[in-house]
Amino acid sequence: MRWWLAALGLIACSGTAPSERLPTGPATRVAQPAEEPAEAALTWASLAITGDNWQAQLATIPADQRASLAVRFLEAGAFECPALPPQPGECAEQGALRQPDAGSTLKDPCLRRLVALWALEQIDEDMITASLSSALMRIVRIPPPDRELPAAALDKMPGGFLTAAAMWEAKAAGNDELVSAHALDGFDDEDLRQAAGSFHFDEALLALDPAVDRELYLDALSDDALRPATRLQVIDLMVSLALDDGGLHDRVHRRLTELVETDDCTLAAAAQAALAELDGDRVPPVIGPFEAEADVIRAICATLGTGSRGKAWKSMIARSGLDIADHTEDPWRVDALWAEYPFAYDDDEDGVPDVPEADPDLDGNAATWKETRHMRWHDQSRLPFADELRLALPHCEDTRCPVPGTSVWFRLDIRLQRGALYRLVGIDRHEQLGSDC
Ligand SMILES: [Ca+2]
Ligand SMILES: [Ca+2]
After folding, report:
1. Fewest 10 Å CB contacts: which of 248, 286, 363, 431?
2. Which of 14-23, 288-297, 302-311, 382-391 is least confident?
3. pLDDT given for residue 178 in this prediction
4. Residues lining ligand 2 (ion), CB within 5 A?
């Protein structure tokens, strides 16, 4: 067995969920370079590379020494270059990387990453050893805004299983952008099966035919490591197959029955609808009474997922109707306001000039505004902000529900009504402009 197959097989068979095995957030600690073998370290030291001379010095390395020095350099690591503070309207992931200055040395990770890009150009597939493979795996985990170095490292993987493993590392590190941008070129069906089965790699699964790989697809129904959007597609595909295949029908039915209990209310609602389709029934509307705030949220989520149901809405919305507020905050407007009103006071010391004439909602902060309206109970045919709520509701903490990947969040006002049961009385939508990532 080849060394990498054995090593990665151990990872793949460990049965450990990605979030348990690897941190999911971007790494913030700047690693120190590992110790290089003495000879390579001496050579690198003798080059006296700085931010001013690095390209010229690299060009002096004899051609027959470049590859081995490149390997040692990549194995030493420490290429995480900090980003510059974001500009107005930018988020951290969109920011620029700091550039090394003329006096930088190879202790500066921003200069090291430039040299690492050079080093990657010096190696090819047949030089990939266990330690170099590990080094490349560490590089693909580097988060945005560095998009160039991780992509270059991933391109050096020889394809198939090792590339799938590297993409798994990137995914487990929360580096989804790199994973989704990388094509599956070079993956044959066996590679795709390993990537889907061992590494929970969404795109690999969806590249396979569910009629051929039905066991993988069945497992995917229960696989929390896959993205919810992938599992929604899997539900549709498996229901289509099961409707024509009596042998599959019961197995899919069993998985979907388990899925109805999942915490993700969108997946649970899709499973409920799929079960109804398999059974030839209509999807039952979720109608109260609701004994907790969470019951109302789950009912809204289910109803959004299965289409508008007047009866269901009326059971969850208060008889007094809905108070709807849309709050917008524009933190980047603060500087513009100070430029426009340089002599304004800031009596409330919130950092924003007190200029009521520039504050549309007159709440004392000219960088925010709010629009409100009321919807009567009888007017309800569907909830406002339905598309955003559909994305937010699986992620509620109590009644605060963020829309993933955006700066939008909701606060649902759910209160006890007569009869000691809960109903929705208001929706507050909040958005901070210029900070979507
Ligand atoms: Ca103020
Ligand atoms: Ca305001």
Report:
1. 363
2. 14-23
3. 84
4. 359, 361, 363, 365, 368-369
Which pLDDT score is estimated for 380? 65
| SS3 assignment, position 73 | helix
Q: Are 291 and 316 in contact (CB under 8 A)?
A: no
- Token pair for 128: 């990939």
Tell me the DSSP string of 79-91.
Answer: --PPBPPPPTT--
Mark out the alpha helices in 222-362 (DSSP H runs): 228-243, 246-259, 265-279, 293-305, 310-316, 333-340
CA nearest to 283, candidates 248, 315, 307, 266: 307
Ion ligand 1: residue ranges with CB closer than 5 A: 346, 348, 350, 352, 354
308 to 158, 304, 358: CA distances (angstroms): 50, 7, 40
Tokens of 298: 């789950």
* Amino acid found at 201: F
Entry pTM: 0.68
**Burial of residue 165, with CB atoms counted within 10 A of its CB: 0-12 exposed, 13-18 middle, 19 or more buried:** buried
Tokens matching residue 280: 């030839």
Q: How far is the CA of 355 from the centre of ligand 1 (A)?
A: 8
Identify the residue whose tokens are 């051609």. 63
Distance 358 CA to ligand 2 centre (A): 8
The ligand whose atoms approach the alpha carbon of 365 most closely is 2
Q: How confident is the model at residue 17 (pLDDT cuts 50, 70, 90)?
A: very low
| Packing angle, helices 160-172 and 3-13, rounded to 10 | 40
Separation of 342 CA from ligand 1 center, angstroms?
A: 13
Residue 324 CA to ligand 1 centre (angstroms): 26
Strand 408-417 and strand 400-402: the pairing is antiparallel
Residue reference for tokens 């426009």: 340
The model's pLDDT over 232-260, given as tens digits with 9 standing for 90+, comes to 999 999 999 999 998 899 999 999 999 99
Distance in angstroms (rounded) separating the CA atoms of residues 100 and 102? 7
Tell me, in angstroms, the distance from the centre of ligand 2 to residue 371's CA.
10
Give the DSSP H or E segment for 194.
Answer: helix 189-197
Nearest to 435 by CA among 331, 323, 290, 325: 331
- What percent of the chain lies above the pLDDT cut of 90? 55
Instruction: Please report how many Cα atoms fall inside a 13 Å half-sphere around the Cα of residue 295, on the Cβ side.
Output: 16
